[in-house]
Please model this.
Amino acid sequence: MKKIKIMLLFFVIGVFTANADTFDDVVTAIKSANVKEISKLFNSSIELTVIENEGVYSKSQAEVILRNFFTQNPSQNVTINHRGSSAQGSKYAIATYESAKGKFRTYIFMKDSGAGMMIQELRFEKE
Model:
């Protein structure tokens, strides 16, 4: 019985750590403007807002839009202002993305799609 409890504890810790790591990976990829890593975590369609360009896009469309944004606004710093989660397991963060051209309020929303945590919504809005 004790062995089962220990195994269950490691499983629960692993689930929470995996979800946290996925979310932290997104933030790290945004800091380094790594579109390939970010797009790996896009859901099949994603709600994307980049400055005033807003819509629901396929993974490949969103990747092109995000690459253009990072090219025009190279990252200097990203600061997480707030992060949280819902009772349903969704995770979100509000951050400030800084580039030489200004600051952008950034919103990241991730949800478990059955295959793990995936980005459902990503926004970069001029502050």
